[in-house]
Amino acid sequence: MDISNIWYFIIPFAIAAAIPGPAQGTLIGHVLSHGGRSSIPFISGMVLGNAVWLIVAILGLAALALRFETAFIIVKWLGIAYLLFIAWKMWSLDKLQTKMSTEKSVGKGVLTGSLLTLSNPKAVIFFGAILPHAFDLTVLSWTQVVFITILGIVIDLSIQLLYLAAASKIRKAIKSEKAMKQVNRTSAGLMVTCAGWLASR
């Protein structure tokens, strides 16, 4: 694999991952209400969802994915419904949650993050557009596919962890009960906004 053009993948992907969107808005809301550590499963789900779309694009299945648009529309609306459900729960909180300690909560975080990124099939179009400029997709081996996927995961995870760190600092600055309640409602508003953005796509 000729890696001389690898920056044609790294730079656009890093920029796209860093640009604030519904995923980042939801992540910030999640961190503010649940804390940084409890939001790691959510980030894992986000990164996992993007990795799925990346693999789909690498394997040349973009056209096939778009052909089964109905299935992805169902996933999209499931994701939107789940975001609205989480937003409603956040709105009803009067204080910040300090932990999400059970395995069930970890599973919910991964599920929420995955649904959020998988509900936006336009990601596969983005990957399909930038990958051919960086790699010759017709001659990639499985080892190279794994390498590109891991590279994408590292880029995505690094950027989302920066968002987590920034939101965690904001959360630590919040002291009063009134402010805590406002944070939860702001977080709920962020999630509703993100759900609306996804619904309009």
From TrEMBL:
<comment type="similarity">
    <text>Belongs to the Rht family.</text>
</comment>
<keyword id="KW-0812">Transmembrane</keyword>
<feature type="transmembrane region" description="Helical">
    <location>
        <begin position="142"/>
        <end position="166"/>
    </location>
</feature>
<protein>
    <submittedName>
        <fullName>Amino acid efflux transmembrane protein</fullName>
    </submittedName>
</protein>
<dbReference type="GO" id="GO:0005886">
    <property type="term" value="C:plasma membrane"/>
</dbReference>
<feature type="transmembrane region" description="Helical">
    <location>
        <begin position="70"/>
        <end position="88"/>
    </location>
</feature>
<dbReference type="Pfam" id="PF01810">
    <property type="entry name" value="LysE"/>
</dbReference>
<dbReference type="GO" id="GO:0042970">
    <property type="term" value="F:homoserine transmembrane transporter activity"/>
</dbReference>
<keyword id="KW-0472">Membrane</keyword>
<feature type="transmembrane region" description="Helical">
    <location>
        <begin position="109"/>
        <end position="130"/>
    </location>
</feature>
<dbReference type="InterPro" id="IPR001123">
    <property type="entry name" value="LeuE-type"/>
</dbReference>
<feature type="transmembrane region" description="Helical">
    <location>
        <begin position="40"/>
        <end position="64"/>
    </location>
</feature>
<keyword id="KW-1133">Transmembrane helix</keyword>
<keyword id="KW-1003">Cell membrane</keyword>
<feature type="transmembrane region" description="Helical">
    <location>
        <begin position="6"/>
        <end position="28"/>
    </location>
</feature>
